[in-house]
Amino acid sequence: MSAILQGAGAGAAAALTPFNSIDSNKFVAPSRSSLSVRSKSYIVAGSDDGTNKSFGSSSLIARRSQPLMIPNAVTATKADTAASSTSLKSGHELLLYEALQEGLEEEMDRDPHVCVMGEDVGHYGGSYKVTKGLADKFGDLRVLDTPICENAFTGMGIGAAMTGLRPIIEGMNMGFLLLAFNQISNNCGMLHYTSGGQFTIPVVIRGPGGVGRQLGAEHSQRLESYFQSIPGIQMVACSTPYNAKGLMKAAIRSENPVILFEHVLLYNLKESIPDEEYICNLEEAEMVRPGEHITILTYSRMRYHVMQAAKTLVNKGYDPEVIDIRSLKPFDLHTIGNSVKKTHRVLIVEECMRTGGIGASLTAAINENFHDYLDAPVMCLSSQDVPTPYAGTLEEWTVVQPAQIVTAVEQLCQ
Amino acid sequence: MATAFAPTKLTATLPLHGSQENRLVLPIRLAPHSSFLGSTRSLTAHSSRRLNHAHATRRSPPVVGVQEVVKEKKSINSLLITKEEGLVLYEDMILGRSFEDMCAQMYYRGKMFGFVHLYNGQEAVSTGFIKLLTKSDSVVSTYRDHVHALSKGVSARAVMSELFGKVTGCCRGQGGSMHMFSKEHNMLGGFAFIGEGIPVATGAAFSSKYRRDVLKQDCEDVTVAFFGDGTCNNGQFYECLNMAALWKLPIIFVVENNLWAIGMSHLRATSDPEIWKKGPAFGMPGVHVDGMDVLKVREVAKEAVARARRGEGPTLVECETYRFRGHSLADPDELRDAAEKAKYAARDPIAALKKYLIENNLAKEAELKSIEKKIDELVEEAVEFADASPQPGRSQLLENVFADPKGFGIGPDGRYRCEDPKFTEGTAQV
Fold it and tell me: In this entry, which stretches build a coiled coil (chain B) (predicted)?
């Protein structure tokens, strides 16, 4: 598992360094830009003549959030670490699960009301080691090993949140949270509303999901598609150590219930992250690779398949813009919209199933809001509508592979 | 991290009161001739025979029930309550009854809609427990929650307005009959699906323990979770019994066994209908009490609450009670046997307390009448207030969906949607 991971991870991580290691997300709001604020001069690349509607340069300066476009020359080369290292005073390398742990530990140090509950989070250290060592440090009550009763301990976390604590509820696998659907939908999402705003539910529900390595159908589920309609919750998906730590911290500090989706295959991604404290904005998308020809929207593990396809596409002369939407609910329609207005072509690559997934909602949102800017129909590559098979070959065909992404881009850019 | 507890200790003597003569053994067993298992005639004859037989083989030496303690106390001339306490209990039960009767009236007059579940007949349970609690203790209920809210201190005005769907309701009109919440009074709801409130109650109790053991605060708050007999066949109930006992959470699980889950008789739904027995299976005391007698309920509640405050963990209390009305105002209530209803009507808890107060010279008829009058006026005023209150405006539609409205996200124009003042009306796309 990790070998393949490193393959995808190493390539992707290198490609990501100029964008992730910069301190773009260092500041909590007011800065809403997901790109670097380091470069003083910027170029609004590729604004098409004649289609420049409300985004004249004057409005860009006037608005607080300024989408900064890094010129293509920088993006095509991956090794532009010189510029990034000037702003990055120091950093340390770690794996994604360690980044999650770091974020969690920092927040637990900062606020004694933050606690963790879930199966095997305490003495075992978490089935994916995210909570390793925390029980020794914070005790068995702050890092609570629960019995196997997802519905009840999720509800318990909600009750604790209503009465002043800030629990992080771990689903050992996101799929297990199906057993907690009653609590997540009825109580987590709704209680703030039905109580007329009297009770807040600042829980974080997190865990690994997604298609792994032959884990079988039930351990390979994508619950983001099931939860997305629940009013009152936010959903984010992390994909790099940088945004994993940042999103973990932001989710814990948020007063809203947040579901943080991690991916089973991404826990061993390695990256260098800043030593200084930072938080990622929960509602913002992340610009992974600016481009001109087509907007590729993705999240979680598919980001790496997209970046792998991007290498092939660049060699073939295409210039894809890759955005990791990160915020699955709500969508960051600003970042996405700006991109669509620039490229006029959209490809969504996701791991959800075809029917009713995040991609389906995103397609609808883009069509609704940016219809005029599209030169081609929005294309959505999703997993097949099938219970993930065990056999390796079948499993491979279930999810979107880089070759399919390349083909789709070629098709859209004809 | 379950601290070691000796299972034997829990089934041993648990004194209800300090003194020797009132020592009780828990779990309390039923007298064999109890009509507790009564339902429709045919079921009673058939099943109680079987269950009594089972009892005969398993029964240990006869033990003292709560009824005996009460009789004992009366006989040695010490009353269970003072005059002040008695009047408080009486007023609370009258408030519950009058309020619910008014709800029925208002419902049929078209002032409130949807599912409304009334508590008539069960007042002894709510009053018996909740009047022992402090303001910072928490109460969690089900959809039959009006009276729990009232007992906990939520004003009749706020509850009635909520039922009318007005902004002055305790939940701004957004919750309705089945979602009575009050942060001020620690009324944690109000839940429409049975069983889903029990984990929330367990969480509130966990919070209490956390404050004490982790934050080192002086916290003795307990949580009381009310739910019915139907809920006791639900997984969440058992999951929470387990966790509460495991971590010795300060919670009291109160089963309001009114023998019916809409039209499903408790006996037809439950393999072992004696719910109190399920407590010891998880390592906590299980107690059965006559839920039509507020004084008996109160005695049991005192011990259960004290246990929880001392950090000794949860208690399961099964209150045998009855609802005089149907499951909800939409229920024609045709299934229940008239004789059964009459039998419990004769055990009306309010009438019983009134009799007790007068017979023991704790109150005069006139005093009690003046309380009834006062409550009538209070409830009428609550209706007037609710009638006069405004309905929610359009801008309230999306206001409380998120505690932090940034959760609605960033719109195409780059601004957070919540920055648009008209956003809460629902005009913006989400």
Answer: 361-388
- Written as six digits, the tokens of A298 are 């993705």
The pLDDT assigned to B17 comes to 34
If you average pLDDT over every residue of chain A, what do you get?
84
Please tell me the pTM assigned to this model. Answer: 0.82
Amino acid, single-letter form, for residue A176: F
Using a CB–CB cutoff of 8 Å, tell me whether B279 touches chain A.
no
Closest to B188 in 3D by CA, of A112, A154, A192, A169:
A192
Sign of the torsion angle spanned by Cα atoms A252, A257, A258, A264 = positive
Cα–Cα distance, A151 to B203 (Å, whole number): 12
According to DSSP, the residues that pair with B68 across neighbouring strands are none
Q: Work out the angle between the directed axes of helices B123-130 and B83-108 (0-180°, nearest 10).
A: 130
Question: Are A200 and B235 inside 8 Å of each other by CB?
Answer: no
Which chain B positions have a beta carbon within 8 Å of A362's beta carbon? none
**B15-37 tens-digit pLDDT:** 333 333 333 334 444 333 333 33
Q: Is the ipTM of this complex over 0.95?
A: no
- The per-residue pLDDT for range A303-346, each reduced to its tens digit, is 999 999 999 999 999 999 999 999 999 999 999 999 999 999 99
Which chain B residues are Cβ-neighbours of A141 within 8 angstroms?
1, 209-210, 213-214
Q: Does B39 touch chain A (CB under 8 A)?
A: no
pLDDT greater than 90 at residue B425: no
CA A60/CA A130 separation, integer angstroms: 41
Q: Which residue type is seen at A2?
A: S
Q: Say how many C-beta atoms besides its own lie within 10 A of residue B173's C-beta.
A: 21
Which residues are within 8 A (CB) of B312 and not within 5 positions of it... i.e. 6 or more apart?
Answer: B248
A283 is catalytic: no
Cα B146 to Cα A335: distance, rounded to the nearest angstrom: 48
Which residues from A are below 8 Å from B239, CB to CB? 147, 149, 151-153
Q: 3-class SS at B169?
A: coil
B227 touches chain A (CB under 8 A): no
Query: How long a stretch of residues is chain A?
Result: 414
Sheet architecture: strand order including A143-145 = A143-145, A114-118, A166-170, A204-209, A258-263, A234-237, A327-329
Structure-token match 């598919």, residue found:
A302
For an interface test with B, give the residue of A61, A121, A162 to mutate (most B CBs within 10 A): A162
Q: pLDDT tens for residues B95-145? A: 999 999 999 999 999 999 999 999 999 999 999 999 999 999 999 999 999
Spatial neighbors of B109 by CB under 8 A, at least 6 apart, are: none
